[in-house]
Write a structure and sequence with these properties.
alpha/beta, Rossmann fold, 5-stranded parallel beta sheet, 7 helices, 42% helix, globular
């Protein structure tokens, strides 16, 4: 395994529930690792279970959850690890705060917005959470009864309603390669 890239980085996936953040984070982690870079994934659902247990869904609790993810990501990134996060992270100001802190530590920050219309998310939602939220049965549901603030200038926007995951992955990798954050693929692979 080689590691041509010593600088750590945080690739921050944001988007509504079901927009493909975790799927893309897993695909990206596998490819980055295959190219010889140390990588860790911080998935929002896993962090809520293990690091943010007890937090609710008020704005303050959501912000605390994102700050915790950001803190762990910073620790890893400043030690040369590429960290891929997948969390809704609905509020722009906290995402921007995390970006500033990561960059102040000397690591790169790449924001990836997983965009998908609510209608598509509701149609593909096997748990029926969007339908319940649209009926008013689930309070504080991001994108329905609680705001989601889209990033105004994400580094990459993927459209999970019209792109295959492999297409989105290729576009994300192209940005990481162009910034020197991951090695170009070895033709022998």
């Amino acid at each position: 395994m080689r590691n041509d890239v010593a600088q750590g980085a945080v690739v921050w996936f944001t988007g509504l529930s079901g927009a493909g953040k975790s799927t893309l984070a897993g695909l990206l982690a596998a490819e980055v690792g295959r190219r010889g870079t140390r990588v860790e994934v911080l998935d929002g659902d896993e962090v809520r279970t293990n690091l943010s247990k007890g937090l609710g869904f008020s704005r303050e609790d959501r912000d605390a959850n994102i700050r915790r993810i950001g803190y762990v990501a910073r620790l890893l990134a400043r030690n040369g690890v590429h960290v891929i996060t997948a969390a809704i992270s609905p509020y722009r100001d906290v995402r921007d705060e995390v970006r500033r802190l990561v960059e102040a530590d000397g690591a790169a920050f790449v924001e990836v917005f997983a965009r998908c219309p609510i209608e598509v998310l509701a149609a593909r939602d096997v748990k029926g959470l969007y339908a319940r939220a649209l009926r008013g049965e689930i309070p504080n549901f991001t994108g329905i009864s609680d705001p989601y603030e889209e990033p105004p200038r994400p580094d990459v926007t993927v459209h999970s309603d019209r792109e295959r995951p492999e297409e989105s992955l290729a576009r994300i990798l192209a940005v990481l390669e162009s910034r020197g954050l991951v090695a170009s693929p070895d033709p022998a692979w």
